[in-house]
Amino acid sequence: MDLIGSNQVRVIIRVCVSDIPGDPLARHQTLGDQFCQQTLLRPFSTKLQASGYDHVHIPGGFDLDKRVNRWFIYDLNVTTELEKEGLDTIPHMVFCASRQNDHWWDAETLYFKPTDYSFRNFIDRKNWIEEAKRYCRTFVWGGRTEQELVAEMRSRETE
Fold first, then answer.
1. Strand, coil or helix: 18
2. Residues 6+ apart with CB under 8 A from 140
3. Alpha carbons 79 and 77: distance in angstroms, whole number
C-alpha cells in the first residue's frame, strides 16, 4: 500500500553517499527507487507526464567515493506548480538512510516480495522536519525546467 497515496509530498533523505550501492552517478535514482519501493511500495517515477511525476533535487558531491553525508530531496506525485509559500501546505517527510549489518537491499527480492525484508533502511526523523522545510524552500517544487516542460505538455492537451 502506498503510504502517501496520490498526495503531493516532499521527502528529504540524509544518507552517506558511499553507502548507496551501484553506479555513483546513478545514486539519486537508486536511492529514490529504494525509498519508493521499500517504504511506499510503489515505483519511483521520474518520467515527465502532465498527470504527475516524481522529481529529485541532486546534491553536490552525491557521486563522491568518500564517506560524506548528503541531503537528497524528492518531490513525489508532482501534479501542480507550487510557489515557495505553497510548499508549506504540503507534507514533508524526513528520513535518515542507513545500512544495517553491511546490507542494503536486494532490488529483485524487494520488488517481487515487498514484505520480505527484515531490516529497516529509512528511519523516520520527524524532529528534523521544520529545519528541513526551511532549507528545502529554496528548491523549486518539481524542478524549474521540469515544471516548464510539464506546463507546455498541459497547454498542448487543452488545445
1. helix
2. 147
3. 6
